[in-house]
Write a structure and sequence with these properties.
globular, 11 helices
Length: 313
Amino acid sequence: MATYAALLAASIIVFAVYIAMHTPGTLSIRELLFPRVEQTLRGEVASILIHPLFWIVSSGIITLFTVSLLFSVSQPALAYDWLLFAASVVGLFAVVNTAAVWLFEGKLHEPLRFVIGSLCYGALCALAAFLINTLVGVWLGSVIDQKMSLLILLAVAPFIEEALKMLGVVSFSGHRMFRGTLDGILIGFSIGVGFALTENMFYIITKIPAHSFDLLLFRALYNTIAHGAFSAIGGAVLGKIRARAGNVTLLYAIVATLVAALVHVAFNILAIVDIVGVSSLELGYYIFSPVLSISLLLIVLYLIYYAKKTEKV
């Protein structure tokens, strides 16, 4: 079963890359070998992010991170068949969620290579956030009480993570093909899904017990939707500003980050309530955070619908 799920997820990913490379007007061989020089630094960064070489390098880094996690866990404790199945489910949900948002945007959506670049950037963001949060946690633990440092880290982590994600949206906003709200939503959602993909792999290997299907479903479905929605909402703010003002300043980027981070904090609080409720047997299953995740997805779909009406030419 795990093998078939892995093959299905891999086939979908390969098909997505093939479409991204062969859709007319999205990426010619000349542009692949000699990318057009952008006028701004952000545009140059965006050109790097949508280049296939970046996809290869970022995939290699994520693979190296995953393998290192596997070797850091006690070998007898690992159920490799379960890990393969869980990783396939996580990857499949990531692809399906992103593809659904991309297709919902209709003919006004960005070329698929922007989506793949965003996914790869988001996956690397998770590694950067893991490193920064670890360093911040160690520093806090050295100056204050351990419990207090954990609470502060839980409060600060969403702001760190959303700032890294919004940095990617800001970079993409400098590309000549970035137009407005729709692009901000799609790129933000893709970055968030890429972030969740790496984070979910971390949890599967280190924290989720083997054959815990309820926890796997929570991480693969709700956590993926939530992370995508956080940055999609922030991306919508940046995209709207980019369309109206023609540029994204530091102040606007901070506002978008705060919006995304506050929604992220609300999700974390509800997730803690769910965990405490299930652990104390007051709740039969996680309720509050899944409801918020679905609500956020509906908000993202409404933002896409609204943007399509206002930006359609």
